[in-house]
Amino acid sequence: MKIIKPEISQLEFIMNMWADEPTMKPVGGVVLLNEEEAHDWFRRMVDPGSPSHCYRIIINDEEVPVGEVSFHRLNPDTMTAELNVKVLDRFRGRGYGSRAVMMMLDYFFGEFGGKTFIDLVAPDNTGGQQMLVSMGFSKDTNRTDGCLLSLNREEYENRVRHSAQISSGCRSLE
């Protein structure tokens, strides 16, 4: 699996994914854009894009696009950005979302230099909440308009360091 910067030819996939009700229901509902709006979005988010956005398509091992992962609304003063991940309904439950988020976390906290990721997840999107919590995100229990989850660089690095210690301490089963 990989995450890639989409080409304009993949805009149709993105628009179809956003129009797919089973995929979009847990994240607030379908998003329908006309062709002009879609091209404007692509220019703003992808090409040429901007430093406050990073949008990628999730591609499975069969080279089939299965979803998206991105960050947007980066605050350059705090280096905090909002995380987004969506996997087509028919491809859920295969680990694509969590692997794509890990790839984006590696980039955001590493090469990009980000400090905090947040994600306001719909209250009834328990699958999305559980996935992010299992990856080290913390819930803000003071929010009532949704489930705000966050992960900062230090928490991420501690989690990565802990994972490396566990894997290096495992003996081979030869």
Structural class: alpha+beta
Shape call: globular
For the biggest sheet, the summary is: 7 strands, mixed
Distance between the termini: 27 Å
Radius of gyration over alpha carbons?
17 Å
According to CATH, the fold-level topology is Aminopeptidase
What strand order characterises the main sheet? 1-2-3-4-5-7-6
Enumerate the spans where pLDDT stays under 50 for 5 or more consecutive residues: 165-174
- Averaged pLDDT, please? 91
Strand content: 15-25%
- At the first level of CATH, the class is Alpha Beta
CATH 4th-level superfamily:
Gcn5-related N-acetyltransferase (GNAT)
Number of strands: 7
Can you tell me the CATH architecture?
A: 3-Layer(aba) Sandwich
List SSEs in N-to-C order: EHHHEEEHEHEEH
Explain what you see:
A hairpin with a 4-residue loop joins strand 3 and strand 4 (80-87). Residues 165-174 have low confidence and may be disordered. The protein is an alpha+beta fold and 174 residues long. It has a single domain (2-168), classed as Gcn5-related N-acetyltransferase (GNAT) (Aminopeptidase, 3-Layer(aba) Sandwich), CATH 3.40.630. It has helices at residues 11-19, 21-24, 35-45, 96-109, 126-134, 153-168; strands at residues 2-4, 54-59, 65-75, 80-87, 116-121, 138-140, 147-152. The protein has six helices and seven strands. It has a seven-stranded mixed sheet with strand order 1-2-3-4-5-7-6, sandwiched between helices.
